[in-house]
Design a protein that fits this description.
It is built from 2 helices and 12 strands; from the N terminus they run αββββββββββαββ. β11 and β12 form a beta hairpin.
């Protein structure tokens, strides 16, 4: 009886493993088609703040400047509010989806403050990113050097924008309220028309 149970168990495990097998020769393509529209604008409302992330174009040409900006607008009940953040409340990390390369966004980490006037957005433009380690593969280093020179290689890019800041929620206790608001936009770079 134990032998039959063992054989039946082995058969079910074998069937399960066989069903999970993947053919490595088949290419899985998660890229949207060239004609599929890309999300070039995003807006996220979180409590008294509106975060906007925009790329001015869905498609850029070779060596064309990439125009991306972020905005943070206060919509609460006061006339103004003070936010606290690192060098900027905005960061613009990206992923190039064809190569699956992450493009980091480094920033100085001082503690700065900015006053937001109600209804007047604070705006910052993307000004470059990227980095690499000497142990990275040559293809990745070459790619990052182009990004760092703001010469984006052909591909599809997803910007994972972040507004990262805090406010003093209670003046008496100096209790902080942290905000990390995220949004995504995307664009393509094509070197030929």
């Amino acid at each position: 009886m134990k032998k039959i149970n063992l054989i039946i168990s082995f058969m079910f495990i074998s069937i399960g493993l066989f069903g999970c097998q993947q053919n490595d020769n088949e290419k899985v393509d998660n890229e949207p088609s060239e004609t599929q529209p890309l999300d070039t604008k995003a807006e996220v409302l979180e409590e008294d703040f509106v975060y906007r992330l925009v790329t001015e174009k869905a498609e850029y040409g070779k060596n064309e400047p990439i125009k991306i900006y972020a905005e943070l607008e206060y919509t609460g009940g006061k006339e103004e509010i003070e936010i606290f953040h690192s060098a900027s409340p905005f960061s613009f990390p990206m992923i190039e989806t064809k190569r699956n390369y992450e493009i980091g966004y480094g920033m100085d980490q001082p503690l700065l403050s900015t006053k937001l006037l109600k209804g007047e957005p604070l705006r910052a433009e993307y000004s470059g990113s990227g980095g690499y380690d000497s142990k990275d593969k040559k293809e990745y280093i070459d790619f990052m050097r182009q990004i760092m020179n703001q010469e984006f290689p052909e591909g599809r890019y997803v910007v994972n924008g972040i507004a990262d800041f805090y406010i003093i929620a209670n003046e008496e206790t100096e209790q902080e309220k942290k905000y990390i608001i995220k949004a995504n936009v995307e664009f393509r770079v094509k070197h030929s028309n």
